[in-house]
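Support request from a user on the community tier.

User writes: "When I paste my structure tokens into the form, the page sometimes reloads and wipes my input. The last time it worked, I copied everything first. Here is what I submitted, just in case something in the input itself triggers the reload:"
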């Protein structure tokens, strides 16, 4: 028992640190919960609860960039994110345990591939974006539909939603990567936040593990990030990618 909580604490510290620098913290928190015997759906819900406070803190750091966004479009995206996040969370809670267990390696593979190729995808999206936010009705509807799909996936599992949201923001013509990251972080906080509420209300969270991981993720997000920033980001990304593919292979072979 003590070793299990120690593993969760260390995984949360690493996840919080990674999230604050490069993203991909759920590659550590979610599998750690499964390895310590938590059922897959409960592990997914608990992992979301554990890392959500860190994403809220990150969103707060982007206040200046967020204030520059067109209020109406931003509120539409927030509303869509809340709706999609809620749909995804409810869908997760109504998914048969065996079916979700079978999905886990494929979800991890998708998230790992998105993380691996995110720099290339982001570069291409920025290259083809116009630099001016497109406010046509058709474009706003298209972006809203895309965001609803992403948010639903985010509430259900969530790995890789950051790069997917950068894609929708590029569809709007956004080009400033700092502003794109700001909007992405706020929307991710909304998606995960509404999912957290639903998971808590449905009692889908194992609290002893969640509390240990919240503490660990907070320490990692605020303390470990300073150490991680001294390391070149490419090495941190490589570490996350290796872990992501290793865990994906493990779950394909052994199951969740």
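"...and here is what came back when it finally went through:"
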């Amino acid at each position: 028992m003590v070793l299990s909580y120690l593993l969760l604490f260390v995984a949360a510290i690493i996840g919080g640190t990674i999230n604050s620098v490069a993203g991909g913290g759920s590659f550590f928190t979610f599998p750690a919960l499964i390895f310590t015997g938590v059922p897959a759906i409960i592990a997914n819900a608990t992992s979301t609860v554990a890392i959500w406070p860190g994403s809220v803190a990150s969103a707060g750091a982007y206040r200046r960039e967020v204030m520059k966004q067109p209020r109406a479009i931003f509120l539409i995206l927030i509303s869509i994110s809340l709706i999609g996040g809620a749909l995804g969370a409810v869908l997760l809670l109504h998914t048969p345990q065996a079916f979700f267990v079978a999905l886990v390696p494929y979800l991890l593979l998708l998230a790992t591939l998105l993380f691996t190729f995110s720099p290339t995808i982001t570069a291409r999206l920025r290259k083809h974006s116009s630099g001016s936010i497109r406010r046509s009705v058709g474009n706003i509807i298209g972006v809203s539909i895309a965001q609803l799909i992403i948010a639903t996936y985010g509430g259900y599992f969530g790995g890789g939603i950051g790069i997917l949201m950068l894609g929708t923001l590029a569809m709007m013509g956004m080009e400033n990567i700092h502003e794109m990251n700001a909007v992405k972080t706020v929307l991710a906080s909304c998606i995960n936040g509404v999912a957290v509420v639903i998971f808590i209300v449905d009692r889908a969270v194992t609290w002893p593990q969640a509390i240990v991981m919240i503490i660990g993720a907070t320490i990692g997000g605020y303390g470990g990030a300073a150490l991680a920033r001294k390391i070149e980001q490419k090495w941190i990304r490589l570490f996350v990618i290796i872990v992501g593919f290793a865990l994906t292979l493990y779950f394909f072979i052994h199951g969740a």
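Agent notes: The reload is a front-end session timeout and is unrelated to the input. The chain has twelve helices and no strands. The chain has a mean pLDDT of 84. Escalated to web team.
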